[in-house]
Amino acid sequence: MNYCCDNFKRWVQSAGVRGFSAVAQSDCGYRFFCLQARGCDKQDEPKMKNIPKGLDIPNPLTIAMQVGIQYCPFCGTQLATFIAEAGDEFQVLADANRPLLIDP
Ligand SMILES: [Zn+2]
Question: Where are the domains of the chain?
Answer without folding.
Answer: 6-100
